[in-house]
Design a protein that fits this description.
By secondary structure, the protein is mainly alpha-helical. The protein is built from three helices and no strands.
Length: about 60
């Protein structure tokens, strides 16, 4: 959300693109079955972050 706001504030489409990549990585991690306790899962924040990074780096988003 911060990257999206910064992109809009500064007119920088690259920041909006980064925001979308991160959002998609989060969605892919959740869809893949990895989520933290607050979302009904059992993953630690470290495990969830690793799943998001993997989704982004493998281009699943």
């Amino acid at each position: 959300m911060l990257f999206e706001w910064l992109g809009a504030k500064h007119g920088d489409e690259r920041l909006a693109t980064v925001a979308k990549v991160i959002e998609n990585g989060v969605a892919d991690a959740i869809a893949g079955g990895t989520s933290t306790r607050d979302l009904g899962g059992s993953a630690s924040t470290t495990e969830f972050t690793a799943a998001v990074i993997k989704a982004i780096s493998t281009g699943q988003n």
